[in-house]
Amino acid sequence: MTPSHICVHFYFGFAAAFIVYRALRERLGLSGSRLWMGVPVVILGFGAIHELIEWASTMILGPERGMLKANDADPFDTQKDLFNNLLGTLLAMALYSLWEMRKTPVST
What we know:
Blueprint: H1 3-27, H2 32-61, H3 77-103
Helix pairs in contact: 1-2, 1-3, 2-3
């Protein structure tokens, strides 16, 4: 697994989490632990769909042209991809939460 491969999955989770965080908070009214559970579930769902598309492309196009490299020495590629999605998501959520706390005035 190359560093660029790791960065792509991490950045997907990071960028998409800002959108999903705000959408779940504004449209569905989620907050607190429900928001912190909902955002990773949605992002990891998108990541799982991507991994299934990788697999399907290899089944249809063959191992030479498909997205999934079956002869890769790393049997845990899918797990690492989803974990990097999760790490990017958690970082984005933490930054978004800090930003929101910074904007909220402290009452005395």
